[in-house]
Amino acid sequence: MAQPESNEPAAAEPDPLSRPLPSVDMPLLRGQVRAARARRVAFLAMLGVAAVGFAAWGLWRTVSAWLDEPEEPPVLASIPLPAKDPEAYAPPEPEFEDETGDDLSVDEPGPEVVEIAPAEGGAARSETTFGQSLGFRPALLRAGLSNDEAIEIERAATDILDFRRCQPSDRIVFERDEAGKLLSFEYHDETTSYVKVSHDGETYSGERVEIPVRRDLVVRSGTIRTSLGEAVMAAGLDRTHAGLFVETFDSKVNFATQARAGDAFRVVVDEEFVDGRRVGYGQVRAIEYIGERAGTLRAFWFEPNGRRGDWYGEDGRAIRGGWLRIPCRYDRISSPFDPRRMHPILRRIHPHNGVDFAAATGTPVYAAADGEITWAGPKGPNGNLISIRHADGYTSHYAHLHRIQRGIRPGVEVEQRQLIGTVGTTGRSTGPHLHFGLKRGGRFVDPMAVINGPGPRLPGGQLATFRRVMAEMNEKLESVSVRAPTPAAAPEAREEGPSEALD
Ligand SMILES: [Zn+2]
Question: Using CA atoms, how far apart are residues 151 and 175, in angstroms rounded to an integer?
Fold first, then answer.
């Protein structure tokens, strides 16, 4: 097999030719994103000032309680102190007048125990939040469980709960009988399931219990005024849904340059409810973009029998079936594909047969398409290299990897988007980056220039099922009307990107 590349540039300067490619993180219409960021910063600053003020007030109340002269706070006298208004902060029924204020309890953090109520048969039920506990076991101890119980529960929950991901809002619920014996324990960390630990005399055993979720198919729609992200949020969707448009239609639209004020979109999505309470959005089922420049695009989520779900176009082909042009999350393109590059070290024309994505060591690298591994291991200046053979005479190459994923070795079949390794700086490399090379018929081609063609069409039986799903979704989409963009609509936030289009 030919060597995908023989050397690497020195830590390259940001290349003016490179520009952000469409990805989930790509800012849409940059001005709007900047404004949002500025708003966020201002909000956090206000929050910070409020927090400092509150802390100062709390400090003063505490200090003033110790001192005999509370009217002279020793520090921070310039900060307006709301506590000087005794009426606003007096306890409901003061037993006696006390101008220093006997309201110190106001400064105490509220008790974390949310509820202790008698349960059936004289048992006591306790519900506590994880709060600011430093770990799972400390949280259990704080909730009122004994050390022995906490150890056993932690052991029983090890495989079904990721202790590092405990959140302050997680709830710890347990019951004891009259004698104080632990009857039940639950840890509520997710909206659709919780951890239950049972104790049958001697042993503790844990399981994850699914909570029934009601899913309503809803349609959300909107019109773009300043950016797709803003319009998506205004429609009551999440920020990630904007990313979904960008990812799915990456090969057809460059949202950074082709999105226009007046463009419209519709989304069919599961809205999820637990116990009648809305918990958020689930799977998106269909998306539609109606653009002045981009045209009308629709994509449908479909899960073929026994295969992972994916986005399909109206023709029944997987939309993203072609290539991942970007096989890892990257900071910048440190060196583009350039067959006539002047090598920075060798000082002669030396082709750069791929694209360098600068990214932190350890960043996951994904297979760009389905295929078979043909090389996985060290290979000279490439460092740790993975090569994959794909359909239609293509091969892809991933050099300088830090790690190669377990099980990735020659002969193994991989799927598109499968984790194959992590970014590193092995071999002839001056900094952590992924060198991504692509060959067609044995010749290197620019991975950024290869058209992201559609994937294979669904097989016959699946195609019929898909068409039924699509008909249902089309009906849903069309149940909500959107204003079609008029070419005359004056774009408010037009931002022309570079003239060379990728697609
Ligand atoms: Zn390279």
Answer: 17
CA 446–ligand 1 middle distance (angstroms): 12
Report, in angstroms and rounded to the nearest whole number, the Rg of the chain calculated over CA atoms: 30
Distance 348 CA to ligand 1 centre (A): 16
* pLDDT digit string, tens, across residues 2-50: 444 444 444 333 333 333 333 333 333 444 445 455 566 555 666 655 6
pLDDT digits (tens, 9 = 90+) for 82-117: 333 333 333 333 333 333 333 333 333 434 555 555
| Cα distance from N-terminal residue to C-terminal residue, the chain | 30
Rounded Cα distance, 404 and 387, in Å: 11
Q: Which domains does the chain have, with CATH numbers?
A: 113-210 (3.10.450.350), 214-322+460-478 (3.10.450.350), 332-445 (2.70.70.10)
Query: In angstroms, what is the span from residue 1 Cα to ligand 1's centroid?
Result: 18
Distance CA 56, CA 131 (A): 23
Find the 476 Cα to ligand 1 centroid distance in Å.
Answer: 47
In whole angstroms, give the CA distance from residue 394 to residue 369: 10
Do 224 and 262 contact (CB within 8 A), yes or no? yes
CA 223 to centroid of ligand 1, rounded, Å: 41
- 9 CA → ligand 1 middle, Å: 7
CA of 275 to the centre of ligand 1 (A): 53
Ligand 1 centre distance from Cα of residue 403 (Å) = 17
